[in-house]
Write a structure and sequence with these properties.
The complex is a heterodimer of chains A (478) and B (473). With 478 residues, chain A is of the alpha+beta class. Chain A has three domains: 295 residues, no CATH class; 110 residues; 58 residues, Arc Repressor Mutant, subunit A (Orthogonal Bundle). In chain A, 39% of the residues lie in helices and 19% in strands. Chain A is built from 16 helices and 14 strands. Chain A has a nine-stranded mixed sheet, covered by helices on one side. Chain A has a three-stranded antiparallel sheet with strand order 4-3-14, with no helix packed on it. In chain A, strands 7-8 form a two-stranded antiparallel ribbon. In chain A, strand 7 and strand 8 form a beta hairpin. In chain A, helix 2 runs antiparallel to helix 3. The relative contact order of chain A is 0.09. With 473 residues, chain B is of the alpha/beta class. Chain B folds into three domains: 244 residues, Amidase signature (AS) domain (Amidase signature (AS) enzymes); 144 residues, Amidase signature (AS) enzymes, CATH 3.90.1300.10; 65 residues, no CATH class. In chain B, strands 1-3-2-4-6-5-10-11-9-7-8 form an eleven-stranded mixed sheet, with helices on both faces. In chain B, strand 2, helix 4 and strand 3 form a beta-alpha-beta unit. Chain B starts with a helix and ends with a helix. The chains are: A alpha+beta (478), B alpha/beta (473). At the A-B interface, loops of A face helix 9 and helix 10 of B.
């Protein structure tokens, strides 16, 4: 059999940290990047006698995620997941087990492929261990440091059905889910800071087979790139194993980004029995229908809706490049710039390109950019008042200064498009300086058009409009 | 020793200083506790400072509260800020909590003075206070006998006259049974009526803090101070407690009392006789007394000994040597956890952790923990049916009077049987009180138990008051 005779079966488990002001069960600050062990109290340290009290904002965020994933929001219950680990303050984690808050939803990938969402439940995060030792790996560590700032940070774990069949789908799912999490306001979705963490359950089966193969769970996937590489590697490993007459052992495997491989962490046989039971320190959680209704009604537009708005603004059939730009702009939350520009009559394709390239390049400043300022810059460009180069310079200045009036900025910067008289004079000088090239151009050597345009641009510091230069060159050739 | 009511009255009116009361109590403990070992630690400096603050408030014309200057003994599973809290275990030896339990704050607001921390069975697991890692407590009525447990130190402190009041915790009878064996009043409130915040957990769904006192009136006074909603405890009940003290003398005219055969039959003859006399006393005071049988109570003990250890196995996981308490070093973290827990926990705690771990294990959960929860529901429903016909139930607190030190330490099942009459109220979450009622063989005290529906503490104390008044002096 070759690899094309096999099919991957993939399910993803995504943990996302909720961006509440305080932790899930106590009043400590929920913040990333503080000094270790400053945001702690008896409850999130698991001190004897401490008790958890549920954070209402966390429930609200969890419900938003459930609603955005078309889940049923149900009466639920917290449970204790018991296992010993030094980053686990109580040596049990408060999670949800057989009665999750959100269940039976779905997520549509941009290409329309629907992935089932089994559940999206609430739980608390653990502390963070840093192993101090030769390799930084747990096995060779000399000692470990524990930071409990993260202990008790609210999480929602979103478990997909094993509906995913390709690496591209897995990446699209994670990316789309990230966009949804950000759109709900529940999470910042930052994989690099660990506020969104993805585990992949991977198995393979012969194409056409009904039954699932034995799966392995892959952990430590810190980017969409590792997600794709790890699944690719793991599926190939399983196929090679099966084709050589072996069997796959159900186990948890660790993705080693540097080595580009997965390694066994623990097998199912030695896995913990978590001894789940209902958390007696908390009462059941059953958000009333009115609250659910408020959450559903307050949900803003999701990424798919926002992409559809841009597609229709473009007239309905975007090019591949435009599709990529639409994804980029929506992922970064810059689609309001494009719609603002479109609203005042700027060409949508141009606004999309500027937002996806020049603006997106400065992602931090981009979110502060005033849509009205962006829109009027684009109008100045499309009406010929600013050349493309000048327009980009004005956008750059707006981003750098964190605001301003584009027309005033353009004046200050000495940026205005050349009059046709001035352009003619510059062109005369350029032609006089390059007589040989001009002769060849007149004989039909079209590629020299670019040379003359560049020269004019240089001579005018980019004030000339490229299209007008080309038009004038063609006019003079006759 | 005088009652808490009398002490508070004297202090509030300026007849006695709180400082004098506290000094006398400390002197009494110093003189007498060598024999009983009711206390694990004392708080002399803190107690004197708090007493001085109470006296200053009185001098300034203020009211320091209903327990002004009253010394109170605290079971050593209640967190006291900066003061050692051990739960009777080596694993927490020397641990100083950075915070006060909600009940400790409530006592302070009421003007009471925390005098010290009392001995207990390790993590409240036991019925004789012999499971303390720091040595047993002796019964002040007869030092050859156990004081009961697990709150044996608190019961003994009140019985010995060291403090008029004490706090205990009751998971399966740990306040009521030692109260009965030591001849004092001990009461378990409705689950959720008193905050558990700062009570080191044994079995979270069963644990409840409650008062010890020498009189029913004093117990009601202390209950009123303890009860109330606490936003730090999610299982705390939002309803406001009806003050119990104000109604304590309202009598039992027309009250329907069910003398519960299942809480009497099987007890020692001297205990059975006293319960019957208490029933007669209630009838004599105008109550309607009838016999009732609630056979479901018979299943309570088995259900309890699955649910409580299951919760305990999880609650006690945190004593792993990582953050506080004992640490026994070993080659890696898992080995350190094991070494610490092996050295730090006593035999009974280990037994219950293993029982509970087993009961929650994959493949056994439904047969053990699940089944026990179903039995718990049956017990609750049985109470509900009984309370359709009766306002309160009456029975024994413990099957026997205090037994000899050492008599049951090697027989866990015999020890567990001590809780057979008290466990149903923990499973249902209902309030119950043990009231001293005469003596049995050897002149040892007998406790009679009154049980009431949820939130009916005021009625419970009314009935208890009549039982107390009818007791042979």
């Amino acid at each position: 059999m070759s690899s094309s005779d096999w099919e991957m079966v993939i399910g993803l488990e995504v943990h996302c940290e909720l961006q509440t002001a305080t932790k899930l069960f106590c009043g400590c600050r929920n913040a990333f990047g503080d000094e270790p062990n400053v945001n702690i109290c008896p409850t999130c340290l698991g001190l004897p006698g401490s008790l958890p009290v549920l954070n209402e904002q966390a429930v609200e965020f969890a419900m938003r995620i459930g609603a955005a994933l078309h889940c049923e929001i149900r009466p639920s219950e917290f449970a204790r997941k018991n296992y010993f680990y030094p980053d686990q303050a109580k040596d049990y984690q408060i999670s949800q087990y057989d009665l999750p808050l959100n269940a039976d939803g779905w997520l549509d990938l941009p290409d329309g492929f629907r992935v089932g969402v089994t559940r999206a439940h609430m739980e608390e995060d653990t502390g963070k261990l840093t192993h101090i030792g030769a390799s930084g790996r747990i096995n060779s560590a000399l000692h470990a440091l524990v930071d409990y700032n993260r202990s008790g940070v609210p999480l929602v774990e979103i478990v997909s059905e094993p509906d995913i069949r390709t690496v591209a789908q897995a990446r699209a799912y994670a990316s789309e889910l990230r966009g949804i999490l950000v759109a709900t306001g529940a999470s910042d979705g930052r994989m690099e800071e660990g506020s969104m963490r993805v585990d992949a359950n991977v198995s393979v089966r012969p194409v056409g087979a009904e039954a699932f193969g034995t799966r392995c769970e892959i952990k430590n996937l810190n980017s969409l790139r590792s997600l794709g590489r790890a699944i690719e590697y793991e599926a190939a490993r399983q196929i090679a194993l099966l084709e050589s007459g072996g069997t796959v052992t159900q186990e948890t495997r660790h993705w080693d980004e540097t080595a580009g491989r997965t390694d066994s962490m623990r097998s199912k046989e030695e896995a913990n029995d978590y001894r789940y039971f209902p958390e007696p320190d908390l009462v059941p959680l059953a958000p009333d229908p009115a609250w659910q209704e408020r959450v559903r009604a307050g949900l803003g537009a999701m990424p798919a809706d926002r992409r559809a708005v841009l597609v229709s603004a473009l007239g309905g059939s975007p090019t591949d490049a435009e599709t990529d730009q639409i994804h980029a702009v929506v992922d970064l939350g810059l689609d309001s710039l494009v719609t603002a520009a479109a609203d005042v009559g700027a060409p949508v394709a141009l606004a999309l390109a500027r937002a996806a390239n020049e603006v997106a390049a400065q992602s931090e400043a981009a979110l502060q950019l005033d849509p009205a300022a962006f829109a009027s810059t684009l109008v100045m460009e499309s009406s010929g008042k600013l050349s493309a180069t000048q327009s980009k310079a004005v956008l750059g200045a707006l981003l750098e200064r964190g605001g301003g009036d584009p027309a005033t900025l353009a004046l200050e910067m000495g940026l205005e498009a050349l009059s046709s008289d001035a352009l003619g004079a510059v062109l005369d000088e350029v032609i006089a300086a390059h007589p040989d090239e001009w002769a060849r151009f007149l004989e039909g050597e079209d590629k020299l058009m670019g040379v003359f345009t560049r020269e004019v641009m240089q001579a005018t510091s980019g004030k000339a409009n490229g299209k007008e230069v080309a038009a004038e060159l063609r006019r003079r050739r006759g | 020793m005088t009652t808490a009511m009398a002490v508070a009255e004297a202090v509030r009116s300026g007849k006695r200083s709180a400082r004098e009361v506290v000094d006398e109590a400390l002197a009494a403990v110093a003189a007498g506790d060598g024999e009983y070992h009711a206390f694990l630690s004392l708080l002399p400096d803190e107690a004197r400072a708090e007493a001085d603050a109470v006296d200053a408030a009185v001098a300034a014309g203020g009211d320091p509260g209903p327990l002004a200057g009253v010394p109170v003994a605290l079971k050593d599973n209640l967190c006291t800020r900066g003061a050692v809290t051990t739960c009777g275990s080596k694993i927490l030896e020397g641990w100083r909590p950075p915070y006060d339990a909600t009940v400790v704050e409530a006592l302070r607001r009421a003007g009471a003075i925390a005098l010290g921390k009392t001995n207990m069975d390790e993590f409240a697991m036991g019925s004789s206070t012999e499971n303390s890692a720091f040595g047993p407590t002796r019964n002040p009525r007869d030092t050859g006998k156990v004081p009961g447990g697990s709150s044996g130190g608190s019961a003994a402190a009140v019985a010995a006259g060291f403090t008029p009041l004490a706090l205990g915790s009751d998971t399966g009878g740990s306040i009521r049974q030692p109260a009965a064996l030591c001849g004092v009043v001990g009461m378990k409130p409705t689950y959720g009526r008193v905050s558990r915040y700062g009570l080191v957990a044994f079995a979270s769904s069963l644990d409840q803090i409650g008062p010890f006192a020498t009189t029913v009136e004093d117990a009601a006074l202390l209950f009123d101070v303890l009860a109330g909603y606490d936003p730090l405890d999610s299982t705390s009940l939002p309803s406001q407690a009806e003050p119990a003290l104000a109604q304590v003398h309202d009598g039992v005219e027309g009250i329907r009392v069910g003398l519960c055969r299942d809480l009497v039959d099987g007890c020692a003859p001297d205990v059975v006789a006293r319960v019957q006399e208490a029933a007669d006393a209630l009838a004599g005071a105008g109550a309607k007394v009838e016999e009732v049988s609630v056979p479901e109570f018979g299943y309570g003990l088995s259900a309890y000994y699955l649910i409580a250890p299951a919760e305990a196995s999880s609650n006690l996981a945190r004593y792993d040597g990582v953050r506080y308490g004992l640490r026994v070093d070993a080659e890696d973290v898992a080995a350190m956890n094991t070494a610490t827990r092996t050295a730090g926990f006593g035999a009974e705690v280990k037994r219950r952790i293993m029982l509970g771990t087993y009961a929650l294990s994959a493949g056994y959960y439904d047969a053990y923990y699940g089944q026990a929860q179903r039995v718990r529901t049956l017990v609750m429903q049985a109470f509900d049916r009984a309370y359709e016909s009766y306002d309160v139930l009456l029975g024994a607190t413990a099957p026997t009077t205090a037994f000899d030190v050492g008599a049951k330490v090697d027989d866990p099942l015999a020890m567990y049987m001590n809780d057979v009459c008290t466990i149903p109220s923990n499973l249902s979450g209902h309030p119950a009180v043990s009231v001293p009622f005469g003596t049995g063989a050897g002149g040892l005290p007998v406790g009679v138990q009154v049980l009431a529906p949820a939130l009916q503490e005021a009625l419970l104390f009314r009935v208890a008051q009549v039982v107390e008044a009818g007791a042979p002096s």
